[in-house]
Amino acid sequence: MFKPLLLAAITLAATLPLHAAELTAQEKRWLHAAAPVLNYSQQLKLPVDIIVQPQARPGDVPLAMGFDKGRCKLVFSMRGNPDAESVLKDVPEADQDRLIEAMAAHELAHCWRYAQGAWHALPAGFVEVGDETAQDAALLAASRAMRETRREEGFADLVALAWVQRSHPQDYARVHGWLAKVRGNVAVPRSGHDTRVWVKLAENGAQFSSAATPFEAASLVWREGLLHDE
Questions:
Q1: Of the candidates 20, 126, 31, which has an alpha carbon nearest to the alpha carbon of residue 74?
Q2: What pairs with residue 52 in β-bridges?
Q3: 74: buried, middle or exposed (CB in 10 Å: 19+, 13-18, 0-12)?
């Protein structure tokens, strides 16, 4: 588990693998921007470990959440990754930290779902009607897997937006507009990252209760979106 990030993100270096002990300026900037979310994860006692990859692989996204042996692994893949900040393209540098913070909240939502034992589970009382059919069993399995991924991504996007509404309401419209643009450029409709249904529902942030945790605030909107994702 990482140590508190109250002074600077560089304090994480002691807990990272030896090959990542010397963080790059880019990694420090992203970790610093994500610090409020990471500190919140400690308050919740979520089992988060931070991993900095010594070399990104082709296609790696800069920030991702994985799971291993009951723990969440927040993986930074910045080194040797020419596309590490492509998601921030055309965003002024002064405005980028808030978007990185939102991305960290998105990934934390995945960890929370995993820790709750709710990964790929529908909310209590939700009844799914109808069923997909296909002659090709492999195609059917792939479609169902994409649907499960899309639902998790939708929930995580809502948590990210709920986090911003709770912590930085003055930035909500800007962050939502950026996320809507990112999701609007999805290559394959109804693929794993096509969360437009949920992002649209949260257009003004009024749906999120400031008294609830970001996860609780996201849950009602997520459930509503599920009804439109059949």
A1: 31
A2: 76
A3: buried
